[in-house]
TrEMBL record:
Main localization of the protein described in the UniProt heading: cytoplasm
Swiss-Prot/TrEMBL GO biological process terms: tRNA threonylcarbamoyladenosine modification
The protein's name: tRNA threonylcarbamoyladenosine biosynthesis protein TsaE
Similarity comment: Belongs to the TsaE family.
Entry's Gene Ontology cellular component terms: cytoplasm
Length: 471
């Protein structure tokens, strides 16, 4: 058993907060072994955990000292078993209590676990009085690292939430993205917030971009609290009305919403890009499109093809894009990262990888969306709207738009292939036909003839090719 993390010192509120954080991530089959002397806070911890799982339907959670076992159910139907083995006379009694089977199908919290013999790969939560302050505790988490490695993050999350005044909040996992970041919604009465859990030391770019955007009245989420060393940010909750969801529920809103998206880019591009963002220029675009040549052709059954894609992209960028000053590109500007707020400005999400890039880059990102169809007439209208608002030279802008669309779509095909083959994330393969169709529209532009030639012979992501990629 490996020592995973320590929370020291912890008062009663922080102890309960850790229980609530843990309640958000544990699943059926997980076993918590709660160790510590009488009065250390084991039942206090378990009570916070169980009530967080139950939410509005929360019951009283008495100590199971005399009953030995209490069972509960959360709104999703997960059973939670709370056991106290202090009065157990023999480990064989575990089977009589039903704990053997529960540990396979339920979340099980066990006080005095040492009285029950060996447990199946538990996470041990040891609570002991603080040496200098008896009213405080020292909490340690221990377990097998392959199974419980994620638990190293839980105390630092609890510490930030507690410090920010959200110790009583319940946490709910939110859908993540293709990165390693994960998100939780915090609910505490009538207020809510969102926690970003990123790799330690990786939030500087997000914080800098948030400050830059908010200073210019763009609606990036306010940062409520932060631990940038640990990669944790507590953010304003912009709600669940992602543009993608609003469009799915009411497709008739599409012209209005896409007008607002384009106008946001027009306003954003009137600002000089900040000095701290990197330049996404021709050489870098060429390097990134190398992901396509590295992964897709071989996976599709045509190894060796597409080797000239990167230098062709770089040469075309120099010919079509270099004369236009770069603007700020949020890079992942699309319907999944924008929040519809009615008459208020669109809410912005996922902008930490912002770059200085050609003005067409984010417009392509929003209009050639890998995850959803954008009607051809809307795409054409928004290109025209942007050109009219910015005074860009129409023919040259459309050629650059096609090039940057092709580069993005090739890169995305490479990323989706790598995610499927190296990380087992196959759900993105379903988007490949849409991405390929957008790529073909881009390649039809006469200025991209050299790129179309460099891609000759590489097959489309047909069902058979996708099956081959999925392995």
């Amino acid at each position: 058993m490996t020592l995973l993390a320590t929370l020291d010192p912890a008062d009663a509120d922080l102890t309960a907060c850790l229980g609530r954080v843990m309640a958000a991530v544990l699943k059926p089959g997980d076993v918590l072994a709660l160790q510590g002397p009488v009065g250390a806070g084991k039942t206090h911890f378990a009570r916070a955990f169980i009530r967080a799982r139950q939410g509005e339907a929360a019951e009283d959670v008495p100590s199971p000292t005399f009953t030995l076992v209490q069972t509960y159910a959360d709104p999703l139907g997960t059973e939670i078993w709370h056991a106290d083995l202090y009065r157990l006379t023999h480990p064989d009694e575990l089977a009589e209590l039903g704990l053997d089977e529960a540990m396979r199908e339920a979340i099980v919290l066990i006080e005095w676990p040492e009285h029950g013999g060996p447990l199946p790969e538990p996470l041990t939560v040891a609570l002991e009085p603080h040496v200098d302050f008896p009213e405080l505790r020292r909490i340690t988490l221990s377990g097998s690292e392959p199974h419980w490695g994620f638990a190293t993050r839980l105390p630092v999350i609890a510490r930030l939430i507690h410090r920010a005044g959200w110790a009583g909040a319940r946490l709910f996992p939110l859908a993540g993205d293709a990165s390693s970041r994960r998100y939780f919604r915090l609910l505490d009465g009538d207020r809510s917030a969102v926690l970003m859990d990123a790799a330690p030391g990786t939030t500087d770019g997000y914080v800098a971009m948030t400050q830059w955007l908010r200073h210019r009245d763009f609606h990036a989420p306010e940062i409520l609290a932060a631990d940038q060393i640990e990669g944790l940010l507590l953010l304003e909750d912009l709600g669940d009305d992602l543009v993608a969801r609003v469009l799915e529920a009411d497709p008739a809103l599409a012209p209005r919403i896409y007008d607002r998206m384009t106008d946001l880019l027009v306003d954003l591009h009137r600002q000089a890009p900040p000095d701290f963002v990197p330049r996404l220029d021709g050489p870098e675009l060429a390097r990134q499109v190398g992901l396509f040549a590295e992964h897709y052709p071989a996976a599709a059954g045509t190894p060796g093809l597409g080797a000239d894609v990167a230098p062709v992209v770089e040469a075309l960028h120099e010919a079509l894009c270099e004369t236009i000053p770069p603007v700020l590109g949020l890079r992942d500007f699309h319907a999944e990262n924008l929040v519809w707020m009615g008459d208020k400005p669109l809410g912005l999400l996922d902008f930490q990888d912002a770059v200085a890039v050609h003005p067409a880059y984010d417009l392509v990102s929003g209009l050639q969306d890998a995850r959803r169809e954008v009607a051809p007439d809307i795409e054409a209208a928004q290109i025209a709207r942007y050109v009219a608002a910015t005074g860009m030279e129409d023919a040259r802008f459309r050629a650059a738009y096609a090039l940057l669309g092709a580069q993005r779509n090739l890169r995305i095909l490479g990323i989706f292939t790598r995610l499927a083959q190296e990380e087992g994330k196959r759900r993105y393969l379903a988007f490949m036909p849409r991405v390929w169709a957008a790529l073909q529209r881009d390649l039809a532009h006469p200025a991209l003839a050299p790129l179309a030639a460099a891609l000759q012979g590489i097959p489309a992501p047909t069902p058979k090719v996708i099956e081959r990629i999925a392995g």
